[in-house]
């Protein structure tokens, strides 16, 4: 969660298509949950801020509870 990743790295990390990741990232950007930085043709994404990181950690913890 602390790393900046490009769309292709995100797709490889969760084993999905670049198209699917791009669609999801657009939704997350519109919701202001992620931020992005362009470097030439590459676009790098990170989680917007610490509040969002904490929410994601809490959701993951809840999902993993049995």
In short:
With about 70 residues, this protein is of the alpha+beta class. Helix content is about 55%, strand content about 20%.
Describe this structure in words.
- The chain is α+β, with helices and mostly antiparallel strands and about 70 residues long.
- The protein has one domain: Winged helix-like DNA-binding domain superfamily/Winged helix DNA-binding domain (Arc Repressor Mutant, subunit A), CATH 1.10.10.10.
- It is about 55% helix and about 20% strand.
- It is built from 3 helices and 3 strands, in the order βααββα.
- The chain has helices spanning about 5-15, 20-30, 50-65; strands at about 5, 35-40, 40-45.
- Strands 1-3-2 form a 3-stranded antiparallel beta sheet.
- The longest helix has 15 residues, at about 50-65.
- It starts with a strand and ends with a helix.
- The model has no long low-confidence stretch (mean pLDDT about 90).
**What is the CATH class?**
Mainly Alpha
CATH topology label: Arc Repressor Mutant, subunit A
How many helices? The count is: 3
Structural class: alpha+beta
Q: What is the count of structural domains?
A: 1
Order of adjacent strands in the largest pleated sheet: 1-3-2
Question: Quick one: overall form?
Answer: globular
Note the main sheet: 3 strands, antiparallel
Low-confidence stretches: none
Rg is: 13 Å
> What is the number of strand segments?
3
CATH architecture type: Orthogonal Bundle
Mean pLDDT figure: 92
Cα end-to-end separation? 23 Å
């Amino acid at each position: 969660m602390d790393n900046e990743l490009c769309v292709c790295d995100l797709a490889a990390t969760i084993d999905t298509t670049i198209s699917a990741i791009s669609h999801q990232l657009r939704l997350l950007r519109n919701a202001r949950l992620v931020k992005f930085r362009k470097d030439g043709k590459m676009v790098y994404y990170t989680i917007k801020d610490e509040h969002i990181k904490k929410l994601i950690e809490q959701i993951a913890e809840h999902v993993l509870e049995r």
